[in-house]
Amino acid sequence: MKLPEPSSEPFGSVRRDGTRTRRSEMKADKAAQGGRLSRQVERQRAISEMVMAEGAVRIDQLAERFGTSQMTVHRDLDELEARGLLRKSRGVATALSSSLVESSDVYRASQQQEEKHDIARAALEFVEPGQAVFLDDSTTVLQLARLLPARRPLTVITNVLTILEELKATRGISLVALGGAYYNWCNSFMGGMTTDAIKKLRADVYIMSTAAITDDTCFFQSQETVDVKRSMFDCAAKRVLLADHTKFEKRALYALAPLVDFDAVIVHGKTDREHIRRLEAKGVNVVVARPHTAHPQPAPNRAQTGGIL
Which residue has better confidence, 281 or 101? Predict the structure, then answer.
C-alpha cells in the first residue's frame, strides 16, 4: 500500500486556489469564537448595568434592546444569576430585593450612596483605636470600612471579601478573616464553619446593617444571614445598627433582634420623624446622621462609653 506523499505546503499557509490549510482555519475559528465570547461578555455587562439602573426589566424588552433572542437573554441571565448579580422572576430580570431574596451587594452598593456615607461617618464615632471590631456584609458598613484608617490601630473581624480587599494593605489594621461557605450575592462566607469561628472570638463592638425593619425589629431574607449576624451580636460588648431610611419601608422573613437591644441605632435625617419618635419612646438610643458638612446628632454618653441599655 502506497502512503500519500507529505504535502510540501507549509502548515497554515494559503494554497494557490485560495483555500486555507488546517492551521489557518483553526486560527480563524478561534478568532471567531473569541469575538463571540467578547460580545457575550459585553452584552452581559450591559444587561446587568441596565437592570441595576432600573431595578427590574422585562426579558422581552432586554431581547429587543440588545437585538437578540429571548433564549439568548435567558442564558445570559442564568449566568448573571449564578454570579449573584440579579435574578429572573416571571419574565422579568430584577436586582431588587424581596421578602425572601436579598439583592446583590453590587446593586445595593449603588443605592443611597450619600446617605450611607453620612451614616458611616456617624458610626465612626463608635470606634476607638485599639479595639476589635466585627463588621457585617452590608454596603453601609463597607462605607465605614473605608473610614477606619482614621481609628488605627484596629483589629477587624469579618466574613466579607469586599471588606478584606478594601483593608488588606492598610497598615495598622489587623484582619481576621472568617471562612465558610461562599455566597455570591453578598460576596461573603456563611454557614456552620463561620459561626463556629465567631463563637471563639470576642469583639469590643459589632457594627451591622439590616435588610428590613418591621415592628421595630431587624429582619433578613435568609436564616444563614441571621445565624452569622446573631453570632457576631452575641460575641460583641457593644452593638451598633446602621439603617438608611429605606429599611423602614421593606420587609423580610427572618427576625434577628429588636432595635431596643442595640446600644445605638444610627439613622439618616431622611428617615420619617414618626419612626424616630416611636423608637425613642421605646428607649432606643437613636443617632440621626446628617450630611457630612454638618455634625451628627450626639449619641448619649452611655452609648459612647459602651454602657448597655
Answer: 281
Query: Alpha-carbon distance 132 to 153, whole Å?
Result: 9
Whether 242 and 263 have beta carbons less than 8 Å apart is answered as: no
Number of domains in the chain: 2
Q: What are 109-140's pLDDT values in tens digits?
A: 555 678 899 999 999 999 999 999 999 999 89
Domain boundary among 59, 94, 129: 94
Beta carbons within 8 Å of 141's beta carbon, 6+ residues apart: 120, 135, 160, 163, 207, 208, 209, 242
CATH number at residue 221: 3.40.50.1360
* Cβ atoms 189, 178 nearer than 8 A: yes
The pTM (predicted TM-score) of the whole model is 0.67
| Cβ 170 vs Cβ 146: under 8 Å | no
pLDDT recorded at residue 61? 84
Structural domain harbouring 146:
107-304
Provide the 3-class DSSP secondary structure of residue 279.
helix
Separation of alpha carbons 36 and 19, rounded Å: 24
In the chain, DSSP assigns E strands to: 56-58, 87-89, 92-94, 132-135, 154-158, 173-177, 181-183, 188-190, 203-209, 212-214, 217-220, 236-243, 254-258, 264-268, 286-289
Q: Coil, strand or helix: which one is 5?
A: coil
The domain boundary residue, chosen from 44, 69, 94: 94
Altogether, the residues listed in the chain come to a count of 309
Task: Considering only residues 41 and 3, tell me which one the structure prediction assigns the higher pLDDT.
Answer: 41
| 134 within 8 A of 232, measured Cβ to Cβ | yes
Output the CA torsion sign for 229, 232, 237, 238: negative
